[in-house]
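Lecture notes, continued. The same structure-token format from the folding unit now serves as the input rather than the output. Read the line below as a description of shape only.
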């Protein structure tokens, strides 16, 4: 056997040994990775409980800022969050509405594990529109609405989520913000199409967060999530500001079997609270909102801004679907 052959054999032996060691090392690493992979237990969302929380809000009457119903509901919301969360803050503010009147508002913020740096922001508005300007009966155009769906539905889902967060802490910290004075935009008949008069509570909070320098990885706004057979399209501004959040939430919804409700299609642009959170607070946020261009108002559910936005037209199962997706997203962070 010549020296060249011996050298070649030595090289082959070492190469094989190296490959074997490398494969063994990779296998060990893979085994270790599998060992540390954590099984995520997501609690079961209770749609009955969420429905009760909506019903309780509506029972106070229309939660129009400046009314007794608004004050009583605020007190109840604060007490419920005190039962569930680590801290509760009532952020009082003043804002000018379209009619040049300065009104008092209250944003309600409930925080879970405030020491955690990695945070998730969950949002809804809790006030009622002071006039049913889309009601088919013109005599009711100055009647305040119950806002069972447009207001209370998102709050009900978040209250039930809060109950679970108190019993089983997610790995991430969570902040639930309920915005006030979201729905005091100008009546339709005035034809004042100025966005600045909508979402007054979210505008204020986004410029003056409850914690100086507040940051969150992402935000999710719930709006009108209690209709029967909801159609949650990928709202335009959500895609523009936070497509990665849309993709993540929709993927979770699909994994739960809700492809018929979380539609894989782009929706229209909605000037909702998430726009101001994106614009001023710089937190990538999306809007889970039912969109229905086939309705009489050509945008939202049939009873939007009418006196029929009441418990009679609230769907418990839709609250459950939305809440289940929210819990799945939060507990997988």
């Amino acid at each position: 056997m010549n020296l060249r052959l011996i050298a070649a054999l030595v090289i082959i032996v070492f190469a094989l040994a190296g490959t074997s060691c490398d494969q063994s090392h990779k296998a060990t690493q893979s085994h270790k990775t599998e060992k540390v992979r954590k099984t995520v237990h997501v609690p079961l969302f209770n749609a009955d409980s969420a429905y009760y929380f909506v019903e309780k809000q509506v029972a106070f009457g229309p939660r129009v800022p400046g009314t007794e119903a608004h004050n009583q509901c605020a007190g109840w919301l604060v007490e419920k969050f005190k039962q569930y969360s680590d801290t509760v803050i009532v952020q009082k503010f003043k804002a000018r509405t379209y009619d040049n009147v300065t009104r008092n508002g209250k944003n309600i913020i409930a925080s879970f594990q405030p020491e955690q740096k990695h945070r998730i922001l969950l949002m809804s508005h809790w006030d009622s529109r002071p006039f049913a300007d889309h009601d088919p009966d013109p005599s009711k155009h100055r009647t305040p609405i119950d806002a069972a769906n447009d207001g209370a539905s998102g709050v009900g889902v978040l209250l039930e989520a809060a109950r679970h967060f108190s019993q089983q802490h997610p790995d991430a910290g969570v902040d639930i913000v309920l915005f006030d004075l979201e729905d005091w935009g100008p009546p339709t008949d005035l034809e004042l199409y100025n966005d600045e008069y909508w979402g007054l509570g979210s505008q204020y909070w986004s410029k003056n967060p409850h914690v100086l320098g507040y940051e969150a990885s992402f935000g999710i706004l719930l709006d009108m999530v209690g209709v029967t057979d909801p159609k949650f399209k990928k709202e335009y501004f959500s895609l523009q500001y936070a497509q990665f959040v849309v993709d993540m939430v929709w993927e979770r919804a699909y994994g739960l079997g809700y492809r018929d409700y979380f539609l894989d299609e782009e929706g229209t642009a909605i000037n909702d609270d998430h726009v101001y959170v994106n614009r001023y607070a710089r937190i990538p946020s999306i809007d889970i909102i039912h969109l229905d261009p086939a309705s009489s108002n050509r945008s939202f559910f049939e009873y939007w801004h009418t006196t029929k936005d009441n418990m009679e037209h609230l769907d418990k199962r839709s609250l459950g679907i939305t809440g289940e997706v929210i819990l799945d997203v939060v507990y997988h962070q």
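Point for the exam: The first strand starts at residue 87 and ends at 96.
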